[in-house]
Write a structure and sequence with these properties.
about 170 residues, alpha+beta, Arc Repressor Mutant, subunit A, Alpha-Beta Plaits, four-stranded antiparallel beta sheet
């Protein structure tokens, strides 16, 4: 069971551990302990505590889209703004659940003001995007407006949270 984050107090060691893990979650416990200047047992205990508290949600590999493009085809990424006809809690939750379950949706944000949602989606090509749009937007009677911005180049992608001063 996850430790309540309200009872959790983060110190500079916790912030250092989180910072290092954001940069490279594949570090062994021994290497991580060396980087933050603690013993391996202390490091292991602290990281377990951070996981149990739900601060470390999961560990993933970030794929290089440029290198994959040469192997799999270029693909198409778009940022899509969605405005719903009815913005009640139930309607928003239904739309959010449906798009979040679709593998083509990389990110889904409920936003305000402006559109109701901003999505980052990925498709193999334009016909793939059109199928995605039909599946997620056109077939939904509650979707009033769709505005897609197709990505021509990614200048930055950094899923790292700034944690403030890390000593």
């Amino acid at each position: 069971m996850a430790e309540s984050t309200q009872l959790l107090v983060l110190d500079s060691l916790d912030l250092s551990l989180l910072d290092q893990l954001q940069a490279d979650a594949s570090l062994s416990n021994l290497d991580l302990a060396k980087r933050v200047h603690v013993s391996p047992p202390t490091c292991l205990r602290r990281v377990k505590r951070l996981r149990d508290a739900g601060l470390i949600e999961r560990q993933i590999a970030i794929l290089n889209t440029e290198r994959l493009a040469s192997l799999l085809g270029h693909g198409l990424q778009a940022v899509v703004e969605i405005t719903l006809e009815r913005q009640g809690q139930e309607e928003q939750q239904a739309f959010e659940s449906r798009v979040a379950a679709d593998d083509a949706v990389e990110q889904c944000y409920r936003v305000s003001p402006g559109p109701d949602f901003v999505l980052v989606v990925h498709a193999r090509d334009m016909p793939g995007y059109l199928a995605l749009a039909q599946r997620l937007f056109t077939g939904d009677a509650n979707v009033r407006n769709v505005k897609a911005f197709f990505c021509v180049r990614r200048a930055k992608f950094e899923p790292k949270l700034p944690l403030g001063p890390v000593r």
